[in-house]
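User: I'm writing a tutorial on reading structure tokens. Could you give me a worked example: one chain, its sequence, then its tokens, then a sentence or two explaining what the tokens reveal?
Assistant: Sure. Here is the example chain.
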Amino acid sequence: MSSQAGAEAALSRLLGLGITHFVLCPGSRSAPFAYALRELEMRGIITLHVETDERVAGFVALGLGKASGIPAPVITTSGSAVANLHPATVEAFHSGVPFIALTADRPEWMRGSGANQTTNQVGMLGPNLVNQIDVSAEDVVEDPELIDRALQDVWRGPVHLNASFENPLHPTEPSFPVTPEVGSFPAPTGPADDLVAGLIGFKDVSVPVPEGDSEPVLEAGSDLVSEVESGLTPSALDNARTVIVAGPGTPYSEVLRRTGHGQVPVLAEPASIERNYAEAIPAARIVADCVNDEIERVVITGHPTLSRPITSLVCRTDIDIISVTTEPVPTDPGRIARTAPVMPDVPDQTAWLKRLSAAGQRAYEAGRSYLGDELDALQVAAQVADAEGNWFVGASNVIRDIDLLAGSPKATFHANRGLAGIDGTMSTARGMAHHLGPMKVVVGDLTFIHDLGGLILTRGQDEPALDIVIIDDSGGGIFATLEHGDPRFSDTFDRVFRTAKNLDIPTLARACGWEPVVVTSTGELREILAAKPAGRVIVVNCAQEIHHVRQRRRELTSIMIEAARQELAGHTPA
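And here are its predicted structure tokens:
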């Protein structure tokens, strides 16, 4: 059985599942996939993205799945190429993004032989997978639907398909004598399927809903799962003073009713769906700290991990903590939460919401007034928070600063918050932009360096417009805000935490075909952020002494806390 036939059979099944975006890394052992994909591209059936660097390719595929909810298989050759997919795979797993690693392999009998570019690829990407299979070309030709079975849970997270090919690796006859049909992706359709079928079912799953429209009212200590299963509807909570803590969800959080809703305060991270809700509280972590003793219940949605105050809140043992299901990894850092498969109904708490909203707005206004026109990392975050459009935000200081300094943002923010790593940021944004349209990215200089390969575009390949804003503060600025930036550790900080680099970013950007722009004032920054994305690398030079960075951030936080407390003091607790 030819390797080409196996590759074509596998790709035909993927098309049948509605998968039409593919990310290919050149290689010899993966050549059967390459020939077949090129044929499908020439017939106008698929969109093919070709990337040289497997780590970049993995994150491009992650972005494609993140934006659409449909996985874009990333194809590699054998050997270390597979290992380079690991960073994107673990991010997909912890953020619940559909992702397929489709890796070519040497025949099974060659494993352990010491042959060139041959290792045991099975399990290389585990345990952060929802499934994996190891097949030969012959296996796929004889039973093409094994691909479907392997991918039945791919909407939840990453699946590894490892396919071994014998020589010859090039076509010996015309490809795809019958053009394969493109089907529909079997996306989850609602929470009822999850409760009855055990997995959030596919479109052919029908679920009878029991008669009756009354919902149980749940009090602290009750079992949400059993109550919800009996009615297949969101359960109702009592009127304990509640906040929703919202982090980034999965592509299917809304359809599965796992996002926060109700007239209650929402403490939402920038990359959560809920951050653009009217109920989202500005300067949420400041306000949460000020009313900590008044909170009686927390409902967690998505995967909030951004700030220490919020993490402390969701780990409290003296109040009711409810975690709405996330796939495939639950969010319960304190190991104390009750779980709910859907977002419970919370009674309207309008006065409580109004009080916290006013405090957040007062803190936000005080913080923005304090910033003035000084051009630093805080200022960049504030100006980005005022911008419009789709923004992909680096996982270090900048997203925390936006969290603090965004009032009611017009922009929609995206980020890799599954494991909150700084690698693959620009590449993920490139993938998302193919579905969302032109985007902007904001990163620190080290986050930019971590994904330099993402700047290098394949000649002749369509790429959506992207602008990349770089906060060049000479290294790991986030560590200055932590205990590591304390003056006690000044002899150590620059060497092993800040790690400033010798890099001429504008020259590098120009060499990679991007237009470099250097910003030197807050006015210039506002002007360039208002422009449409156009392939620019925008460098904001704002390196400062660590003691000044720490002092300015302490003062900002102190001013915002005081403003929130003053506002809260003028309102009677609800």
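What the tokens reveal: The domain at 3-164 is CATH 3.40.50.970 (Rossmann fold). Confidence is low (pLDDT under 50) at residues 193-233.
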